[in-house]
Amino acid sequence: MAAPLADRYRLLHPAWGDRFGMTHIAAGPDGAPAAVRVLSARPEVRAADIELLTGIRHPNVAAVRAVLVDDRVAIAADAVLGRTLRRARLTAGELPKVGTSLAEALSALHERGVWHRTLDPTTVRIDHRGEAVLTDIGVGHLLGLPGRAADDWLALAGLLSTVWRNTHGRWRRPPAQLRDVWADTMARARDMG
Q1: Which domains can be identified in the chain, with CATH numbers?
Q2: DSSP for residue 61
Q3: Residue 10 contacts residue 4 (beta carbons within 8 Å)
């Protein structure tokens, strides 16, 4: 049975969960599909948090539509159809493009003063166009998870290395373009401290 959330989103079925909460496929107020992340804790949510998170717009970020507060707290975002980066098999040419797109998405978050804090292969989806889209925006922010911009950059560098090794084997040397993206990501982390 579908459960209404803040009388706006109808939760249809759970998609996946972790220690921070459960993500559901939902129907939004306009009937369009949404991804609704019901947080495991009920943090204090300020109007400024809602305005901040719903104001982030970037083509490689799943836009937060609403932060919902009733007896629980949830983040409603655009549903991104596609596979997670954990399940993606990327070619040597695709991975640098993914890394660059994610770096641009993180930069857009950081410009707004939001750190992702939970970046891993499950929070990146490859959509039907082959574009990398960062999901779970605002989870770390609302839950008050510790983090800095440098932590996001280190997580991105680790994610790119892991995806490369999982796809192409530990000993195959990555192409120069991917090494450039990785080096730039590490430099950003180092510069931020």
Answers
A1: 3-78 (3.30.200.20), 82-192 (1.10.510.10)
A2: B
A3: yes
Return the number of other C-beta atoms located less than 10 Å from residue 44's C-beta.
9
The answer to whether the beta carbons of residues 112 and 55 sit under 8 Å apart is: yes
User: 125, 3, 145: which is closest to 74 by C-alpha?
Assistant: 3
Q: What is the mean pLDDT of residues 42-70?
A: 95
Measure Cα distances from 85 to 35, 70, 101 in Å: 17, 32, 13
Question: Under a CB-based contact definition with an 8 Å cutoff, are residues 152 and 116 in contact?
Answer: yes
Q: Phi then psi for 59, rounded to 5 degrees?
A: -60, -20
User: Are the C-beta atoms of 117 and 154 separated by less than 8 Å?
Assistant: no
Alpha carbons 184 and 174: distance in angstroms, whole number: 15
Which token pair is 59? 């083509």
- d(CA 120, CA 58) in angstroms, rounded, equals 19
Q: Is the pLDDT of residue 145 over 70?
A: yes
Q: What is the pLDDT of residue 5?
A: 73
Which stretches within the chain are classed as H helix? Answer: 47-54, 94-111, 139-143, 149-168, 176-192
